[in-house]
Amino acid sequence: MSDPKTVKGPALYLALVHAPVINRRGEEIVAAVTNLDLHDLARLACTYELPACYVVTPLKDQQKLVHRLIHHWLHGIGGQLHPDRERALRRLRVASTLEEAIAHVEEEQGRPPFLWATSARGSGTDVEPSEARLILEATGRPGMMVLGTGWGLSGKVWRLCHGTLRPVEGRGDYNHISVRCAAAILLDRFFRK
Amino acid sequence: MSDPKTVKGPALYLALVHAPVINRRGEEIVAAVTNLDLHDLARLACTYELPACYVVTPLKDQQKLVHRLIHHWLHGIGGQLHPDRERALRRLRVASTLEEAIAHVEEEQGRPPFLWATSARGSGTDVEPSEARLILEATGRPGMMVLGTGWGLSGKVWRLCHGTLRPVEGRGDYNHISVRCAAAILLDRFFRK
């Protein structure tokens, strides 16, 4: 198993934010954790050698749920049957707030991460994911791609971010892909040269 | 709502194959349909203006399940609450076999589709998804990206395909992403110029 610290290239983290996010009426809510999001993002983190993916939720029972899931795959029967799943789920970490995740990355990497918000709508100041990679390569700082559940990140989260990534555009005007698929495409664009 | 027939560029279809696929011991099985796969692939089909995504399963009760899901979002309360989901789920079609899906595409497009198998392992004769797009542009034929559930497509399915797409490679040696995330990345690579 490769050690994330020995991987060449920038240290990029993921944060899957469940609060504060907005609902379809634009109100601030706490979204529920979706089991399959965690599996898919953990497997993506492993594929692209991200040191970790933070599951951000302030709800203690949801945090317990995530810890139980991780425990099942790391120490339960799950890991014995599917060692590739164990290897992936190891990269999940739980945080109560995005600020807590940021502080943790700074402690681990010795420097604060650049944060990029992601959204289905463009902001006019978006950077291409490949440009974001160049920023990390040029500065030597770690980075964090911030993904929102529900109907997207709230303004409070946006204000913690240094910039936004250009949204995934398709061939038409439809822009409602799942956070799982968005993360996959953005990571591929980030690392692909 | 844009009509797929008016979309510029090649007509690419998806097929999500549940049989015949293999299990982790390499045995031929029929995999169960996963609700979230259908949502994610339908939303991707809508994003990239694919005329349709075929859900391939020979099991009548699984076909009924898919029809019920589609009905819920097209005619039930689902579509009223989430019109973007209704728009996406419209692109799902059920087929008993991959051959049936191929015949349907040929009928719809007037020419048989080029088929590309997808896999987590390279085959030595893979083409880049962007090359596959060029083949469709040059020949004017429709195409179909064939995705396997379970542990991947069986040999019987491979023999129906004209070629294979280069697998998604990350930064390390881990190659176990979900079929949802693989489809997202391959479609993005296919259409991105």
UniProtKB/TrEMBL annotation, chains A, B:
The lineage of its organism: Bacteria, Pseudomonadati, Thermodesulfobacteriota, Syntrophobacteria, Syntrophobacterales. Transmembrane segments: none annotated. Signal peptide: none annotated. Coiled coil: none annotated. It holds the Pfam family Methyltrn_RNA_4. InterPro entries: RNA_MeTrfase_C_dom, tRNA_m1G_MTases_N. It comes from the Bacteria. CDD domains: TM1570-like. It comes from Desulfosoma caldarium. Residues 12-191 form the tRNA (guanine-N(1)-)-methyltransferase C-terminal domain. This is tRNA (guanine-N(1)-)-methyltransferase C-terminal domain-containing protein.
